[in-house]
Amino acid sequence: MSESDKIVSLKNARKTVKQNNEETGEKQEPVYCSFCHRPNTQVAKMVQGPGVNICSECTMIAVQYLILEDKLPSGEAQKILDIFWSKVK
Q: Nearest 10 degrees: CA dihedral of 3, 34, 54, 7?
């Protein structure tokens, strides 16, 4: 998977980052997570929004927090969390 395939941009939903770079011939600069400050080269996926970015790991931490805040995660939610964290390691 190339580095540009690891970034999902919400800024320009009709064109992917890869298409934009191919059209302009520009090399893509690293994209950093606004929460953990890791570049897209060190994470599984990165989502770009207007002025903010979040990596897949920070997204799952947030999801896990929201699920566990209820103190009783559902069986399905727990399976998703377990699968994600086992693949990240």
A: -20
